[in-house]
Amino acid sequence: MAQSGALLALAVWVGVVLSRPLGLGAPVIEAALSGSEAWPALRRQLVPAGIAGVFVGGLLVLYGRVAPPELLTLGQTMGIPVAVKLLYGGITEEVLMRWGLMTALVWLPWRFIQKRVGPPRTSCVVGAIVVAALLFGLLHLPAAAAMGASLNPSVVAYVIGGNTVPGILFGVLYWRYGLEAAVIAHALGHAVSVLVAV
């Protein structure tokens, strides 16, 4: 628990310190903290985040139907509470993976290759989005193993693939619209998948 808290604190620090020079940010939170009206920033995020969230929710439902049998069994016997999916998935994972990790991955080439000249190259941002999404998928493997899944090739491919595609979408939302858009889409994706499955 302490280790998770330390990682989350580090991710928050990285995002706060490094995001602004890169053109990244959390515009709703920034507006609220500065005493400005937050609604215009949020309004700009709602449509793209909503579309992405519904798409991800549908993807999760479809993906669930082709899950390896052992994961289906584990999912039925060890269901993750909806609140955990929405809060941990929607907020904590986005702070860790996009606000922290993706920001750092964009900053590194901007700092050491571009020498802080101009905005980050699109290729660097896209690369950071993909790498962060792949790591997002890889980091779900320990959770699958902890639930009792054997990490055979089909399970590994399923877990990584099922998290990488949404991770790419969340990364694009963070890049183009801000952290809150990624958080909304992530939480909405889980909500849609749960509602459809009821």
UniProtKB/TrEMBL annotation:
Q: Where are the transmembrane segments?
A: 45-64, 125-149, 155-175
List, for all copies, the residue spans of the domain called CAAX prenyl protease 2/Lysostaphin resistance protein A-like.
82-189
Q: Which source organism?
A: Marinobacter nanhaiticus D15-8W
User: InterPro entries in the record, alphabetically?
Assistant: Rce1/LyrA-like_dom (IPR003675)
A single GO BP term for this record reads: CAAX-box protein maturation
Q: A single GO molecular function, which one?
A: endopeptidase activity
Instruction: Tell me the protein's name.
Output: CPBP family intramembrane metalloprotease
* Keywords, sorted A to Z: Hydrolase, Membrane, Metalloprotease, Protease, Transmembrane, Transmembrane helix
